[in-house]
Write a structure and sequence with these properties.
8 helices; globular; 4 strands; alpha+beta; binds glutathione
Amino acid sequence: MKLYMAPGSCTTGIHILLEELELPFEAWIISIPAGENRKPEYLALNPKGSIPTLVLDDGQSLTDYVAISYWLARRHPRAKLLPEDALAAARVMEILVHVVGTVHGQGFARIFNEEGFQADGEAGEALRAQGRELVDKAFAILDTQLAEGYATGCFSIADPALFYVEFWADKLGIPLPPRLAAHYALMRQRPVVQRVLREEGYR
Ligand SMILES: N[C@@H](CCC(=O)N[C@@H](CS)C(=O)NCC(=O)O)C(=O)O
């Protein structure tokens, strides 16, 4: 398989899952600042121009954290990345969708000025402030919902997603509420997470 990714981006979550599952893959780095995600060859794989994109062994491409992680979990059931019980699985998806859709898609996307939120000067400042408010509000809600330890108790596809937004918060100096801070510390203890961060150039 080929993973189209950028170090320290949301693709870190999929990178963690692939390494947790010990799946062989090639990493293809896409520079968003250089506009590589808008080149015709990349748009042919992912017309949204977003990362991650995972190209499967049969050549099909799969996009978006939620879709890729769901496929990985279903394809490798013994890794128990998504519970068999329907309600428990729905709880994982509830956290995952909030993290990817709101914390990243609404909050950090405004802070990073990505995904069509681009604006300069004062407008850019106001967008970033709005993004920060959205992140803080979503973090406060997640803090009331997280289990002790991993997001819903056992390690699941929600955890690497929560990790990548916690990592961004850490890098930007956005404080994590207590349960998120404990989750972030727990994730950073996982050998795979430590290896992935090293591979992506972080110490
Ligand atoms: N919902 C998508 C969002 C992916 C996303 O926004 N990725 C960012 C990088 S972290 C990106 O590709 N930004 C460039 C763009 O959208 O032009 C997913 O989960 O994969």
